[in-house]
Amino acid sequence: MQRQLSSIALALTALTSLATLAVSISPALSQPVATNSQPDKVTFLCREIFDKASGEKIPATVAWVPERKGHIRIIGWKSQVFPPAFSPQKRCEVVTQRFQQFYDNGGLNYLTHGINNGYPVICSIPNQGETCSAANQLFTIRPGSNPQLIFEQLKGILGGDTNIFLYQSSGQQVYVDMKEFFNKAPLENIPS
Q1: Whether pTM exceeds 0.85
Q2: How far apart are CA 122 and CA 192, in angstroms?
Q3: Which residues form the signal peptide (predicted)?
Q4: Do the beta carbons of residue 157 and residue 49 sit within 8 Å?
Q5: 79/39 Cα distance (integer angstroms)
Q6: What is the pLDDT of residues 114-144, one digit of tens each?
Q7: φ and ψ at residue 4, rounded to 5 degrees
Q8: What's the burial of 150, exposed, middle or buried (CB within 10 Å: 0-12/13-18/19+)?
């Protein structure tokens, strides 16, 4: 009898430990969910959207903007150029998480383009004039692509048909003001 009680106690302890581990791991791996308890926080999500060009659903990084009570599209992920382990869905998940981290840490004031380790990239910077690095890189653009041209296309996606979000310094560096974008980008009908 004593042995059975010890076995049951041990099993319950193991089960409790596993449940605690699962609960502590889950939030780190899951996508953030916009709720009414986050009224002042932009929340980034990876969602499927309809791509008019291909006629198919594709993964997309979108943002819930609580002040506007709606979603805005950031970028759709279609490229198959990267290794199979980094599928469009995986890129969406990874980059969406980066957007959220930069936003939460106050580093998502502007998007810009640059080169990091020889690859063209889009990055998030807190202030104009800063450059892209591994620390602020959001995502890599297809090798061989012109980052400024790709950024101009991304800017078009971000700003709809307007250049209101585009800033250019005295050089060729182009910036998207994300605060202005969150306030003025077209709202999308994206299921939660």
Answers
A1: no
A2: 27
A3: 1-22
A4: no
A5: 34
A6: 889 988 889 999 999 999 999 999 998 877 7
A7: -65, -45
A8: middle
